[in-house]
Structure formats: structure tokens, C-alpha cells
Design goal:
single chain, 137 residues, alpha+beta, two-stranded antiparallel sheet, 7 strands, 22% helix, globular
């Protein structure tokens, strides 16, 4: 997924005491949606830093990049787009101080959406909003 890249912060929900983390395969390049089921797989070394953020209340992965914020949803296709945007609106409300109605304004006017993966039963859509529309950079 293009948003999971060096320098970006990935927020992951933890539902159980002692939650573990696993890194999968790294891609040097991947078309949006991983349309053929493969990408340019590479051997890599990664350095990760973890911090527990209590009370975040997120249900799905969220990504913060220098230029914007993203939410990833893996629900069935019919519900994925609204779900990805609802998760992102909730994040704007919790972390950026928007009211719920105001959190939807950047979505209706300046959001992005791309297919993160469409090759198996865990297809995903990624909703995004650039920080310049959030009053922060």
C-alpha cells in the first residue's frame, strides 16, 4: 500500500492484551490495487518504533503522512468506501478536534480514494485528505 512507506506513521488498533506485530513482504513498487496479485518484492531491513496510544478508539489502520491522512477499510465492496471515509472522519474528530459534521466537510470537497488491494478476499480501499485542508500541515 503506497501510504505505508518510510517516514509515515501507521496507527494500528490493538484489541487484546499483549497484541503482537508482524511485518509482511516489502514492495519496491506496486500498482494501485495490486491488479495482477504481485508487486516488485524486495528483501529489506526496516526499523520500526512502537508507542502505545491509549484511548485512540480506532477500529482500522490509519496512516499519517507529511502531506495527508489516510484510512484503510477491508469491508465488502459495497460498504468499503463509506466505511473508509467514516473511519477517517472519526479520526479527524478524535485527533484533529473537528466536530462530527465538520469532519465530513474535507471528504465532500477534497478527499481522495484508491484501491489498496483487489486480489483476494481482503480487498481494501484507502480514503485520504490532504493536511492543507485540515488547518494543519
Amino acid at each position: 500500500m503506497p501510504g505505508v512507506s518510510p517516514g509515515n506513521t501507521v496507527y494500528l488498533p490493538g484489541f487484546n492484551e499483549g497484541t503482537l506485530f508482524y511485518t509482511g513482504d516489502c514492495h519496491a513498487r506496486q500498482g494501485q490495487g495490486k491488479p495482477c496479485g504481485v508487486a516488485l518484492e524486495v528483501t529489506s531491513r526496516v526499523t520500526l518504533t512502537f508507542e502505545v496510544v491509549k484511548g485512540g478508539g480506532i477500529q482500522w489502520p490509519l496512516i499519517e503522512a507529511r502531506e495527508g491522512v489516510m484510512s484503510r477499510s477491508t469491508r465488502p465492496m459495497g460498504g468499503r468506501c463509506p466505511h473508509a471515509h467514516a473511519e477517517l472522519a472519526g479520526w479527524l474528530e478524535s485527533y484533529y478536534g473537528f466536530s462530527r459534521p465538520d469532519a465530513y466537510q474535507p471528504h465532500t470537497q477534497a478527499s481522495g480514494l484508491y484501491v489498496g488491494n483487489m486480489v483476494d478476499t481482503t480487498c481494501s480501499l484507502v480514503a485520504s485528505v490532504e493536511k492543507r485542508y485540515l488547518g494543519r500541515s
